[in-house]
Write a structure and sequence with these properties.
With 208 residues, the protein is of the alpha/beta class. It contains seven helices and six strands, in the order βαβαβαβαββααα.
Length: 208
């Protein structure tokens, strides 16, 4: 096939990193049923919430155009008496602080182009629980190292969350690994790839 080089996006180096102590799960993304599937995050949390009474799930993202879906999710929360445990926070200009004050990113997406939220959260020291089948995330999260990749369905997602919620050491270790893993997408490393590519192309053209 053609000579093809893939160069990733830059992930800004995160100066502020979560200490993993905040008992908070995080969902960040547009509240859309089809691709992002935040309802799965809620349903998974509902399954394990009684075992982890101090934990909350915070939902950040734009719900514009998804009012009916949002109402469905809120009704689900009310029917499970989870109004104090699942909180919708809307949008923010300082997502950095949100990552810093959370412990785990839950990513129930079906697919992602380039998992921007995932890379930002990992860079901020959050381990990620996501689906094995989710292209774009399954390449960023290393299962058992920087997060947990689970089989499809609500039960496996709940089990993955519970594993990290129950184990402070595991959560913090995976968070530190996630932070470390994102360094390969730092500005300097990504630009270095571009420079090498340009040099190579210039070299190829010189010999013609």
């Amino acid at each position: 096939g053609p000579d093809c080089e893939i160069i990733p996006n830059i992930v800004p180096e995160n100066q502020r990193v979560s200490d993993g102590n905040h008992k908070k799960l995080l969902f960040v993304g547009r509240l859309t049923k089809a691709a992002k599937r935040p309802h799965l995050a809620i349903q998974a949390f509902e399954k394990v919430a009684s075992k982890f009474p101090e934990w909350k799930l915070e939902m950040w993202g734009d719900s514009h155009g998804s009012e009916r879906y949002l109402k469905e999710m809120k009704n689900d929360i009310i029917s499970h008496h989870m109004e104090n445990r699942v909180v919708y926070r809307g949008t923010t200009t300082d997502i950095q602080s949100v990552y810093e004050e959370s412990a785990i990113l839950v990513c129930p997406s079906e697919h992602e182009g380039w998992g921007l939220v995932v890379t930002e959260a990992m860079s901020a020291g959050l381990p990620v629980v996501a689906y094995k089948s989710c292209a774009g995330v399954n390449e960023l999260v290393e299962d058992g190292h920087s997060g947990i990749l689970v089989d499809d369905g609500v039960e496996p997602l709940a089990a993955g969350l519970a594993e990290l919620m129950a184990n402070d050491t595991l959560r913090k270790t995976m968070g530190a690994n996630a932070h470390q893993a994102m360094k390969k997408f730092s500005k300097d490393k990504v630009w270095e790839k571009w420079f090498r590519l340009v040099d190579r192309i210039a070299g190829i053209n010189k010999t013609v």
